Amino acid sequence: MKVLIVCNNAYMPGNGICTAVLSLVDRLKCKGISVRLMACENPDPQGPQPDYRLKHFKFPFFEPIIYSNGFRYATFDKKTVTEALKWADLVHFCEGFPLEGKTARLAQKMGIPCVGTYHLLTENVMANLGMKKARLLNHLVTQWWRKAVYDRCRYVQCPTETVKKYLLMNGFKSNLRVISNGIDLAESSYLPRVLQDSPINIICIGRLSFEKSQETLLNAMRYSRYADKIQLHFAGKGPKMKKYQKLADELTRKGILEYKPQFGFYTHEQLKDLIRNSHLFVHCAWVEVEGLSCVEAIAEGVVPIIAKGPFTAASQFALDQRSIYTESDSKALAEKIDWWIEHPEERSRMERLYAESVGKYSASNSTAGIIRMYEEALAQ
To answer: From the CB of residue 366, how many other CB atoms can be counted at a distance below 10 Å?
Structure first.
């Protein structure tokens, strides 16, 4: 089986799609499947490059915003794309942008079967362009993605049931398969932890951007009874970093916080250490296709508090309502934080239950599900 994976962007650090795509490539190769990647060239000339390199397409005016959010668009090159398609038995699309649309049309003409993964909601894109409430535009773009790419796919991987419902609501015609993107759990091993009482470490992982809504956690400190004992850690970078750092400075200057919030982009091992020393994990995003950073924290036994809303699937990881709050509601988030701080014995009990709950999101289960999807697509 020869699989061509197509995405615009595979080499921008901190981008969840890049992480998922490169992880999938490695896992498929470990299973003996011949995989090649077609994507935009790596901006780091010393770093790895895709098998089929496409030039970077720069959008006038919007390019600084796009790049600051960890994304790059690839230019469609018919010669390169045709060469890649001639090699492939199956094409796997990871987005619905023009590169994928033109490639899907060409693959269809050549009789090459296609599958896709719905990694990204249009709300992700529009939010970062300052158009959160542009419902009609979101709908029109979703329909373009459907017609241009996903209706040409025999199967579409939905990372969560939330995504499947979203696609059904938008009239998607392909067979929809719910398969988690998966995470490598081999390095995660829960051990009962003894953490110091102060400071209370709370970690928030993700790109610092509008739809990730880390501002909700910062503003929750205005309502928490334990704000002076809390040390916030934001693991990530992005276009909102300066704004959030300014807000953090304000909360510290006013005496609301005794411990200044920490911002950083960490290595894998540094992040693991930070997670293991955290009392709570908070996930604030109001748009989220899956949210595997939740699994990464939960696997280490850190109790989560997760935003719930119509465009986020991450609340699926919560075991009960004590770990859920309404997205963008800082006061409700503060109440959840305070409850878990006030109930350390219950938090300790739930740590084990959370760590035991993540097995179904393993990379091995994900890979097996995707390979079955490939086999069924080829058999049609």
So the answer is: 23
What DSSP assignment string belongs to 6-17?
E-S-S--TT-HH
d(CA 37, CA 47): 15
183, burial (CB in 10 Å: exposed 0-12, middle 13-18, buried 19+): buried
Q: Which residues contact 305 (CB under 8 A, 6 or more apart)?
A: 280, 281, 282, 283, 323, 324, 325, 333, 336, 337, 340
Q: Which domains does the chain have, with CATH numbers?
A: 2-182+362-379 (3.40.50.2000), 200-360 (3.40.50.2000)
Residue written as tokens 């970093």?
241
Give the model confidence (pLDDT) of 58-103 as tens digits.
877 767 777 766 778 899 999 999 999 999 999 999 999 999 999 9
Q: Which residues contact 98 (CB under 8 A, 6 or more apart)?
A: 73, 76, 148
Model's pTM, two decimal places? 0.90
